[in-house]
Specification:
By secondary structure, the protein is mainly alpha-helical. The chain is built from 15 helices and 2 strands. A hairpin with a 5-residue loop joins β1 and β2. α2 packs across α5. The chain is elongated and about 65 Å long.
Length: about 325
C-alpha cells in the first residue's frame, strides 16, 4: 500500500495512522504495514457480513464509508474469522498472522483507550500465534575478514567504509543511509539516529575511523546534491538502501559466501555476535550500541552461545556410545 492511498481508508483508520506517525514516531514502512493490514481486515468484514457480494473483486472493495457505528459492532470472533481467512485463503505464515494481530490490537486500543471513541476494546484478549525464535544468521570472524578482503573496484573506499561500519557498529540499513558526515565527530564518536528518531552515540574503533578517513579523501565535493550525506551514490546524491543492499550482496557473492543467505541485516547480527562472543562485551552494552528498546531483543545473542555449547557437548564422540548398563 502507498501513502497516496490513505484517503481510501475509513476516517478512523486515517487518524490512527497519523497518530502512529506523529505521536508514536513509527517509521513510514511500519505505518504502511498497519494501513495494509487494516484495509485487508475491513474489506474482509464487508464480505463476511454480507454487505459486499462474495464474487466482488477483493482489491477493489471500497471501505472509505465505514464509520464508528460499524466499527463498534466488531467482535473478537470477527478477528479470528479474519485470521483464519488469512491463513487458509491467503496462505499467510505465522509471522504475517502475528503482525495482523498486532495491527488489530493497536488500532482498537487506540480507539478505546486513547480516543475513547468505543466503549470497550474487543481485541484486548486477541491472541497471537506462537513464533519460533530463529537464531540470527551471522558471519564468523574469518568470514568477516574474507568479506572485507573481497572489496575492490572504483568505489572501494566507500564500499569498504560501509561494510566496516556494519560489521563493527551493527547499524541498521536505514541508519547507515541517513548518516551525515557531521555525525562523525573528531573525538572518535558517531551520532546515529535510530527508530523513533532516537539518537545514540557509538564509539568508533580504529578500523572504522581509518576506513571513513580513507573514504573522505575520495568522497566527491563538486556537484554533490546532498552536501550533508556521508555516503554518496555515483550520481552524487545520498546513497539509497537499495544501493547499499546491492553493494553488500555483490561482495558477499564475490567473497564466496553467497549461498549462506547473508544480507545487510545479517552484518548487524555479525557485529553483535562478534562483540559478545569474541569481545566479551556485556549484553547491556550491546543493547545500547544496537539501539534496542528491550533487553529481550538483545539477549538472542546469548542464546547463540547456549546453542553452540549444546552442540559442542553433543558432538563429543562419547555421545555415540551406549552405556553397558543401559544396553543390558
Amino acid at each position: 500500500m502507498h501513502k497516496e492511498e490513505f484517503h481510501t481508508l475509513p476516517q478512523s483508520v486515517i487518524e490512527f495512522l497519523n497518530y502512529l506517525s506523529v505521536v508514536r514516531s513509527k517509521s513510514e514502512l511500519t505505518v504502511l504495514e498497519y494501513a495494509s493490514d487494516l484495509r485487508l481486515f475491513f474489506r474482509f468484514m464487508l464480505v463476511y457480513r454480507g454487505i459486499v457480494a462474495k464474487d466482488t473483486e477483493f482489491e477493489k472493495i471500497d471501505i472509505s464509508f465505514i464509520d464508528l457505528d460499524f466499527i463498534k459492532t466488531v467482535k473478537i470472533s470477527d478477528a479470528y474469522a479474519f485470521l483464519s481467512y488469512c491463513r487458509s485463503e491467503r496462505k499467510n505464515d505465522s509471522a504475517s498472522i502475528a503482525r495482523k494481530v498486532s495491527s488489530l490490537r493497536a488500532f482498537f486500543k487506540y480507539l478505546c483507550v486513547k480516543m475513547k471513541q468505543i466503549p470497550e476494546n474487543p481485541m484486548e484478549e486477541l491472541e497471537s500465534p506462537k513464533l519460533k525464535k530463529a537464531l540470527p544468521k551471522y558471519l564468523s570472524l574469518e568470514e568477516s575478514i574474507q568479506l572485507l578482503d573481497s572489496i575492490d573496484g572504483r568505489d572501494k573506499e566507500r564500499d569498504y567504509a560501509i561494510i566496516t561500519i556494519f560489521l563493527n557498529c551493527g547499524l541498521r540499513l536505514s541508519e547507515l543511509c541517513s548518516l551525515n558526515y557531521s555525525d562523525i565527530k573528531t573525538d572518535g564518536t558517531m551520532t546515529v539516529t535510530g527508530k523513533g528518531n532516537k539518537e545514540r552515540t557509538i564509539y568508533l574503533n580504529e578500523m572504522c575511523v581509518n576506513a571513513v578517513k580513507e573514504y573522505m579523501k575520495v568522497r566527491p565535493v563538486d556537484g554533490v546534491k546532498d552536501k550533508h550525506a556521508l555516503f554518496l551514490s555515483n550520481r552524487k546524491s545520498r546513497i539509497s538502501p537499495k544501493t547499499v543492499q546491492h553493494i553488500v550482496e555483490k561482495f558477499i557473492e564475490k567473497s564466496g559466501l553467497g549461498d549462506r543467505g547473508y544480507s545487510t541485516h545479517k552484518l548487524r547480527h555479525t557485529a553483535a555476535t562478534l562483540m559478545y562472543q569474541k569481545g566479551g562485551v556485556d549484553v547491556l552494552l550491546i543493547k545500547d550500541i544496537l539501539g534496542h528498546e528491550n533487553l529481550a531483543t538483545t539477549e538472542i545473542y546469548t542464546h547463540i552461545v547456549d546453542e553452540q555449547l549444546k552442540d559442542a557437548v553433543s558432538s563429543n564422540p562419547l555421545n555415540k556410545l551406549k552405556s553397558k548398563k543401559t544396553s543390558e
